[in-house]
Specification:
This is Signal peptidase complex subunit 1. It is a multi-pass membrane protein. Component of the signal peptidase complex (SPC) which catalyzes the cleavage of N-terminal signal sequences from nascent proteins as they are translocated into the lumen of the endoplasmic reticulum. Dispensable for SPC enzymatic activity. Pfam families: SPC12. The chain is mainly alpha-helical and about 90 residues long. The chain has a domain of about 55 residues. The protein has 3 helices and no strands. Helix 2 packs antiparallel against helix 3. The mean pLDDT is about 90.
Length: about 90
Amino acid sequence: MDFFTSIPTHIDYVGQAKAEKLYRAIITLFSIVGFVWGYIVQQFSQSVYILGAGFLLAAILTVPPWPMYRRNPLNWQVPKNGDDKPAAKKGKK
C-alpha cells in the first residue's frame, strides 16, 4: 500500500495548461485525419476508430500526473501557529 500512497497525484497550473493544449491538439489532429481517411475509404467506422485512438492516446498522455506537468510547483505559505489569537477587528458602532 505504501507504493500507491507514494505516487504523486498533483499537477501544477502550468502543467494543466500544457496538458489541455496537448489534448486539444491530439484530438483535433486525429479528428481531421480520421475524417479524411474515412472519406477516402467511404467508411464511417474508420473515422470513429481513428478518433477513438486519438482519445486513447490523449488520455494516456494527459490524465496521469507525468513529471512534465509538475515542473512549476507553487510555493505555499508557512501555516500560522494555532496558539496565536487573531487581533480584534475594530468596526463601526
